[in-house]
Amino acid sequence: MKISTQVMDAAALQGHLDIVKWLHINRSEGCSVHAMDSAAAGGHLHVVQWLHENRTEGCTRGAMDTAAAGGHLATVRWLWAHRTEGCTTVAIDFAICNGHFPVVKWFSELASYQPRIASHTAGVSIKSHTCIKKDLGGRATLVFE
User: Fold this and answer.
1) What is the reported pLDDT for 136?
2) Please, which domain of life does this record's source organism belong to (predicted)?
């Protein structure tokens, strides 16, 4: 029976580590970078960690972007500490737009990460948790309440 890398990718997307492991042992098709990316998007940290330890495909910056979009702080932190891909500037935008303020706060506290605040969120109160204010110089400041 012929299958493709999409099968392991789909199992990772759903967080089915048992199926990912079975395919790894019993099939030669493997997976693509979409396996780790989609596992991260779903917050399936156990799958992300297993793929990191047992496969070589890796992931893209989309893994951290979509983990941030989903509010999966543990996954974002793990990817930051153990992978080299990093993220794009939209990671914090996604977290802000989706109301995932622990993720936004974590990004804002990183000395090495200067978040770009989406212009459409500047000056607006978001779900009563955070207010993004602009000073006279046009710099955005996150205020956590």
Assistant:
1) 44
2) Eukaryota
| Counted domains in the chain | 1
Residue 120 lies in a domain: no
pLDDT mean across residues, the chain: 84
pLDDT exceeds cutoff 70 at 31: yes
In terms of residue numbers, what domain contains 80?
5-114+125-144
Residue 96 lies in a domain: yes
Work out whether strand 125-126 and strand 130-134 pair parallel, antiparallel, or are unpaired: antiparallel
pTM score > 0.85 for this model? no
Q: 121 falls in which pLDDT band (50, 70, 90)?
A: very low
Asked if the structure places residue 54 within a domain, the reply is yes
The CATH number of whichever domain residue 55 belongs to comes to 1.25.40.20
